[in-house]
Write a structure and sequence with these properties.
The complex is a heterodimer.
Chain A lengths: L8 H10 L4 H50 L20 E2 L5 E14 L6 H11 L5 H9 L5 E8 L1 H10 L4 E10 L7 H4 L1 E7 L4 E7 H5 L1 H5 L8 E2 L4 H17 L4 E8 L5 E7 L24 H4 L2 E2 L5 H10 L8 E3 L4 E3 L2 E3 L8 E3 H7 L2 H11 L1 H10 L19 E2 L5 H8 L4 E3 L1 H12 L24 H17 L13 E10 L5 E14 L6 E8 L3 E3 L2 E3 L6 H15 L7 H8 L3
Parallel strand pairs in A: 1-7
Antiparallel strand pairs in A: 1-2, 2-3, 2-4, 5-6, 8-9, 8-19, 10-16, 11-14, 12-13, 15-16, 17-18, 18-19, 20-21
Chain B lengths: L16 H8 L2 H28 L6 H21 L3 H25 L11 E2 L4 E2 L1 H21 L6 H17 L4 H17 L4 H21 L1 H11 L8 H12 L11 H4 L8 H33 L4 H25 L17 H18 L6 H10 L1
Antiparallel strand pairs in B: 1-2
The chains are: A alpha+beta, B mainly alpha.
Chain lengths: ~600, ~400
């Protein structure tokens, strides 16, 4: 590019000869350049500004047009829609023993047809006596509007209200039959059922469609007209579910917790015998989803399948299991648990002082972070990752609930050395309680994976093997010891041989870091430990109790007693007989 | 330069401020703003009683507050519009530095009023939203930097203005306030476009914004829920949008009549984010069309005046201001008619809210100051062209 100099030599020389300051030549040239640049800039910007103007004008015009279209669209439903072809049929939902969870009830909708209407104002006045929440003025306006031929008044009326409406004697008020979905147990299993709303509505029938929970996922099956008489059986046991929810509610009240969840699952088939999340709601009258605030605070939130938590020490089982499986250690291998481990700017240390050498069994019993991190170091990051992957802890866990579809475990994709160590004791990997339950089932049932399901499936095929029978037996022995001599000593239920691992995780602060005084307490395990039939995972959000001289937030003081209470009441209902301690210990090879 | 042209009126330095102001300011814009403000007062009369009843205050408490803020806002607008572009630039850059520092300190000193986003600075008797004031100042600052970058041997103004904008957006995102972030980014994009960006880069930028939105959708639950609510075809009649839509339908062409509206009793944000629904319900489509037309007048008048402007700073800063103003109005109304996903944003000059109103006064004042007609060397240009 040829550049025109700001100080043309010829003119400068001339100027010097005439004794004029050559600076002024440069200044003038500069001024001229600026002047030209400004004109050029204005010309260049002109079409761009015009383009912007056109774009903005188009935007305003679009908004105006849409506003006009909305304003011009009618609000009234002009014609009664008979609703031929709408099927209101919907199959019942039963629990595993045939008790009703959801059924249909014939009810009526209330509407008005103006060609039969004699005195709209009087009808409105009378209707307000029956339905106090209706506005008399606007209703009367609607019922006397000459342009209108039809209007809905209520989508659902009770038999008493229907009779009272009938007694008004106004021929223009008509009742159309339709089914409504009824959950006779109210809040029981609310998160599983979800809820329904009306889809297409006609005066002779209305389509019921699921909006959440099972009702949504299995909508096609339930609304299939051919299968309307064939009820759908769930794995759920209704009395057990009732007890579980009652004990959980009591526990939340006693420990002043925000919420909690319970999963009770068959250890071999993956059938969910009970699943609860608190706070809960009534699916007969499902609340509107909250648009503001944390969705996890909504009663609609299913903590068992939607809540992603760093669950803490319950994850240590997986490190121990893998180390045993790989033959790196035996339950009696002595580990160096001298803390803290320093890694860059991180320090890994234990909650309370521990001996500097402990056996692998004691690492689990005493819940040593240092010992577990050392096990993870022996295993190595890639192996650890693939093991947790094989347990399904790093993927979506499909279950018949729409709420679970977008919930993927969260972790650092790089899986560095430090995350390897923290994940081994339960930090840095957020999973749902359901993920944990599925993985625990594989740990204790002899080593094969199960697929959690809400549906009845007594003859589930034996799943993929993830650990050997031998390792599973060793783990059962250790998990049993956690209850007999470790952190879960309140979990002992005579005759049912509960085993499990506690976990108390500091809650992450949304502003960064962790809260010091807010925890998620978890107890995960199975019973009876000699031949586990049921796996449980119970979590409580921010529990606290003043006991033995200080405020307790750990799982051992909060969740574990709740689980003990649950097992004590539920195990007999599930048909388990109390066993003799000597037999069980012999079977487990303890003592 | 002293170019003497026969017949031209020599510029009088001694001309009184007010008469020069009246002669050069865009009176169409001022009239439009005053009309919008009047409509805002009218609607405040409608939407104040429900809110006041809910908060156990005298029925017209919020109207009185609105009146005070409107008076202050118009005062600010007139005062600022009398300043010269240089004064505007100086104070806006200073204002931006202060505002930026406040935003930076907001996570520590701010309050969220339990709404889940730390946006407010509580002063005890009242609270302000610093991001509202940062917006106009940022537009002017970025315009200044961009213009400086175009000068001969100028600094790398584009990069600097981009850096300043991105830093501000970053602070807004951590609040989180995605609406204001989008607005600021859009304003900068418009300035960059006018400053002569290549079409390739502009296309790339648009793609980045879409990509950023996609990431925000996947990362932020808050954001994702609003988009989901927008994309789901079925509108829950109990949601804010459901009420707003039915309000517009109920209103029709002529409206239900003064004070007859129902929506203001049901919507918590009837006095701010959904004030257009109140307008549509009580006064009908005619008033809404008038409101839209007034915004369009402000926007188009400013852009038309800027096409004649030769000073790159004035042109760019003016573009940024008018783009932000128009986009804010469009987003607010676009949400109510479901052309855009739900995003809390006030309607300029009409919504209640002290910070928003005062900042709007400041913004329009700056815009008016920048779009005042000035000698643009048109005669000399004419002479040059004729000479060729």
């Amino acid at each position: 590019m040829i550049r025109t100099p700001l100080r043309p030599l010829a003119r400068i020389l001339d100027a010097r000869e005439q004794g004029v300051n050559p600076q002024s030549i440069e200044r003038e040239n500069l001024r001229l350049r600026r002047e030209q640049a400004r004109d050029a800039g204005r010309r260049r910007a002109e079409w761009r500004l015009l383009f912007l103007a056109v774009a903005f004008f188009a935007g305003y015009a679009a908004i105006g047009a849409k506003m006009g279209m909305l304003a011009a669209s009618p609000v009234v439903e002009s014609e009664p829609y008979a609703g031929e072809g709408i099927s209101g049929a919907r199959a019942d939902v039963l629990d595993r023993n045939g008790r009703i969870l959801a059924t249909n009830l014939v009810t009526h909708s209330l509407y008005a047809e103006m060609r039969y209407m004699i005195d709209g104002a009087r009808a409105a006045h009378e209707l307000v006596q029956i339905f106090p929440d209706l506005e008399e003025e606007s209703l009367s306006q609607r019922l006397t509007d000459p342009r209108r031929r039809f209007t809905w008044i209520r989508s659902r009326v009770s038999p008493e209200q229907a009779q009272a409406t009938h007694d008004i004697g106004e021929p223009g008020l008509l009742l159309g039959p339709r089914d409504m979905r009824l959950y006779p147990n109210g809040e029981l299993a609310a998160h599983l059922m979800g809820g329904t709303s009306y889809g297409e509505q006609g005066v002779t029938a209305a389509e019921i469609q699921g909006v959440a929970g099972l009702e949504y996922t299995l909508n096609e099956r339930l609304s299939d007209a051919d299968l309307a008489d064939v009820p759908l059986s769930l794995a759920l046991d209704l009395p057990v579910q009732a007890v579980v929810e009652e004990v959980l509610a009591d526990g939340l009240q006693m420990y002043n917790a925000n919420g909690g969840s319970v999963i009770l699952m068959d250890a071999h088939t993956g059938e969910l015998v009970a699943m609860a999340s608190a706070p809960t709601f009534d699916p007969n009258n499902r609340p509107a989803p909250a648009l503001t605030g944390d969705p996890a605070d909504s009663p609609l939130f299913n903590r068992a399948v939607q809540g992603l938590y760093e669950l803490g020490s319950v994850m240590k089982v997986f490190a121990v299991a893998q180390a045993l499986e790989l033959g790196l250690v035996t339950p009696d291998t002595m580990m160096d648990t001298q803390g803290p481990i320093r890694f860059g700017r991180f320090r890994i240390s234990d909650m309370h002082s521990m001996p500097s050498r402990m056996s692998v069994t004691d690492v689990l019993i005493e819940s040593s972070n240092v010992g577990t991190a050392r096990l993870a170091q022996m295993i190595g990051a890639p192996q650890q990752r693939s093991f947790l992957q094989s347990l399904g802890l790093l993927d979506y866990l499909p279950i018949e609930l729409p709420e679970s579809t977008r919930v993927r475990p969260q972790y650092d994709e790089r899986w560095s050395e430090i995350s390897m160590m923290t994940i081994s004791y339960g930090h840095g990997l957020s999973i749902t309680p359901l993920h944990l339950a599925a993985a625990y089932a594989a740990m204790v049932n002899g080593g094969t994976m199960v697929q959690p399901t809400l549906l009845r499936r007594p003859d589930a095929p034996v799943g993929r093997r993830v650990i050997s029978e031998q390792t599973s037996l060793q783990l059962r022995r250790m998990l049993r010891s956690v209850v007999t001599e470790g952190t879960a000593s309140f979990g002992e239920v005579e005759g049912y041989f509960v085993g499990g691992k506690t976990g108390t995780a500091d809650k992450p602060n949304p502003q960064g870091g962790y809260y010091e005084d807010r925890t998620v307490a978890t107890f995960a395990g199975a019973f009876p430990m000699n031949d586990p039939r049921y796996v449980f995972v119970v979590t409580m959000d921010e529990p606290t109790i003043f006991a033995a001289g200080e405020n307790r937030r750990t799982a051992g003081w909060t969740v574990v007693p709740v689980v003990a209470q649950m097992v004590r009441r539920v195990a007999p209902m599930l048909g388990l007989r109390p066993q003799d301690a000597a037999d069980v210990d012999a079977e487990l090879g303890l003592r | 330069m002293t170019e003497m042209v026969h017949g031209s009126i020599p510029a009088q330095q001694g001309e009184p401020v007010l008469s020069r102001w009246w002669r050069t300011v865009d009176r169409w814009t001022i009239s439009s703003v005053l009309l919008l403000v009047a409509i805002g007062l009218l609607l405040a009369l409608a939407s104040s009683p429900p809110l006041a009843t809910r908060n156990h205050l005298p029925p017209f408490h919020y109207f009185e507050r609105h009146l005070i803020f409107v008076a202050m806002s118009v005062g600010i607008m007139l005062f600022v519009s009398m300043r010269s572009p240089e004064t505007v630039r100086r104070w806006a850059v200073l204002g931006f530095i202060i505002g930026f520092a406040t935003l930076l300190a907001l996570p520590v000193i701010g309050t969220d009023f339990g709404k889940g986003a730390t946006r407010w600075l509580s002063l005890g008797f009242t609270s302000i939203q610093p991001s509202e004031f940062v917006k106009p100042c940022l537009a002017v600052t970025a315009g200044w930097l961009l213009a400086a970058g175009q000068d001969l041997n100028g600094p790398p103004g584009r990069l600097m203005s981009l850096g300043v904008t991105v830093a501000t957006v970053g602070l807004l995102v951590i609040q989180p306030d995605f609406g204001q972030s989008a607005l600021v980014l859009f304003g900068w994009g418009a300035m960059y476009f006018v400053s002569g960006a290549s079409i390739v880069i502009i296309t790339g930028l648009a793609a980045t914004v879409v990509g950023g939105g996609f990431i925000a959708y996947n990362v932020s639950e808050h954001f994702a829920r609003r988009i989901d609510a927008f994309l789901s075809a079925e509108l829950d009649a109990r949601s804010q949008l459901g009420y707003a839509t039915s309000a517009i339908q109920e209103g029709g062409l002529w409206g239900m009549g003064v004070g007859e509206g129902q929506v203001k009793w049901q919507l918590p944000d009837a006095h701010t984010d959904f004030v257009i629904a109140v307008a549509a319900e009580e006064y009908g489509f005619l008033l809404v069309a008038l409101i839209i037309a007034l915004y369009a007048v402000i926007c188009l008048r400013a852009l038309m005046r800027l096409t004649r402007e030769r000073d790159p700073f004035v042109r760019l800063a003016g573009t940024g201001l008018v783009a932000m103003l128009s986009a804010q109005a469009m987003i607010n109304m676009g949400v109510a008619v479901r052309l855009l996903p739900a995003k809390g944003m006030t309607l300029p000059f009409i919504s209640q809210g002290g910070s928003s109103l005062l900042a709007m006064g400041l913004m329009t004042g700056m815009l008016l100051a920048l779009t005042r007609s000035r000698p643009q060397g048109e005669i000399s240009e004419l002479l040059q062209n004729r000479g060729r």
